[in-house]
## 1
Amino acid sequence: MLELVEGDITAQEVDVIVNAANSSLLGGGGVDGAIHRRGGPSILAECRRLRAGHYGRGLRVGQAVATTAGRLPARWVVHTVGPVWSATEDRSALLADCHRNSLRVAASLGAVSVAFPAVSTGIYRWPLESAADIALSTVAEELAGETSVKLVRFVLFGQQAYDIFRSRAV
Ligand code: AR6
């Protein structure tokens, strides 16, 4: 099942919330800032451990990795790094990878419900219409396959983002 809601992803009572992070995994603005603020320091502590271990060079664009969700109602945060929008280079496959890999990491944890923000559409400037098409089609494809995930909720920040996602979901 695929749901669209307008709201704040940090308030979602789901197994996994996806964070639109950056390669450093060490926090930032936008939804990343909100997740670390509301989730508390244990998320950053785990991100630092990831950087000290397997992710010494950071998380690559399109990849995903899980941490605790700290004080958030969710059980885990899956951090993914969206591509920065480019008018001259087609980076759609990387944005699709973010969604696919986030769902696969969620499934590896046995998660049933997952909430996504509109990855890359803020500071990384990806146009909402295009991001919606890529996100919705990739998630639908993944849900049609073998996965523990039964519910994906897109949590859109503001009426405009919600309306655009709504208009692209057929
Ligand atoms: N809940 C749901 N959506 C939100 C929230 C929230 N609390 N806050 C913002 N959004 P962005 P990006 C929406 O900029 O474009 C960070 O600094 C926002 O309106 O958070 O992937 C990272 O560290 C937009 O539609 O992520 C990276 O450096 C969407 O979330 C960089 O920003 C994504 O906006 C990543 O940029």
## 2
Amino acid sequence: MIIKPKFRGFICTTAHPEGCQAQVEEQIRYVLEQNKISGPKNVLIIGASTGYGLASRIVSTFGCGANTIGVSFERPSSGKRTATAGWYNTAAFEKNARQAGVKAYSINGDAFSDEIKQETIALIQAEMGQVDLVIYSLASPKRTHPHTGEQLNSVLKPIGQSYTNKNVDFHTGEIKSLTVEPATEEEIRQTIAVMGGEDWQMWIDALDQADVLAEGVTTLAYSYIGPALTHPIYREGTVGRAKDHLEETAQILQRKLEAKQGRAFVSINKALVTQSSAAIPVVPLYVSLLYRIMKEEGLHEGCIEQIYRLFAEEIFGGSLPHLDAKGRIRIDNLEMREHVQAEVDKRWDTVNDQNLIALSDIEGYRKEFFQLFGFEVAGIDYEQETNADVAIPSID
Ligand code: NAD
């Protein structure tokens, strides 16, 4: 079929297999050009098909030579529907990893469920024995609690009072004022249950009980802080509460893993264009301004540069990672530099529909968003027929 982007709100409902493959191979190429990392040998990545999780899988294999198991929740193609981008990314990753002679297995299903945890454990036992790195990179709007069956939903809302700020429609470049009403106590509870640390802890407990965590294992989850202007909607809002819980869970896991000389960290990462971050009100405009300033200063990084730096300099750099006062790794350090944020603030006050292109990287944001789904990738002829029915070798 000929595949074109189709949108429902900020979600793209189609994906291009060759474009996704090219994007994955671009990330692989970046890692192959860097120094090798003396790191993990067998890695489990939960949330491995897009964004930070996919970058973690690529750095594990092509930077460290590690075997990987990637868990994600993606949809294969059927009839006239393409697969999701994460499906095509996973197929492309496996193909490249296998060509490089490294084991790569993928599990597609609900990571919050006991069944997927048990399936993953059985696969580790059969193929790797134990894992020495577990990355938790899930981003999900909902969770079915595995023990109570409760359907939980996460919301992106402020707490205590409503929040009004500028928001951009990155398809049209239109900036409008947006007001988000505060969350209820129940919405806060459910958001913590979806995006907090309970499921990460359930994974580590299940893996530990099955004795598939190697001596000296490291586990890592990702979080975000960001600038004061997004705090009401993000860090001091519902998702921020969930991130507080995730970060507290790292401390619990650190104490638990000490018995096997293990380590548990949260890394605070940079704001980037991913399917999840596009859904957060106000954030796309912030990211567009941030990208422009960081590119102008030669400080810009994408997922792959962030995760390579995290592995090479912090986790597997040979010395202890640099931690902030709350025990977190801060690879958001370039984003949070004082002069970068001062420039964002200055532009934020004046940005409008007329000067958006001059002040921000809205064009870069839009392009990267399309590229998440395999579109607008150089070298791909989008007028050509493409086979949308792509298999993931370890699943089919
Ligand atoms: P993403 O949307 O690109 O990836 C989410 C992954 O989770 C995908 O692999 C998806 O398949 C998987 N997933 C979702 N629900 C699942 C389920 N029920 N079962 C199995 N897999 C499931 O997200 P991302 O932006 O890379 O975010 C990953 C983590 O990084 C999150 O914790 C996020 O808060 C954090 N982070 C993101 C940013 C950013 O700007 N994007 C910045 C800092 C930290």
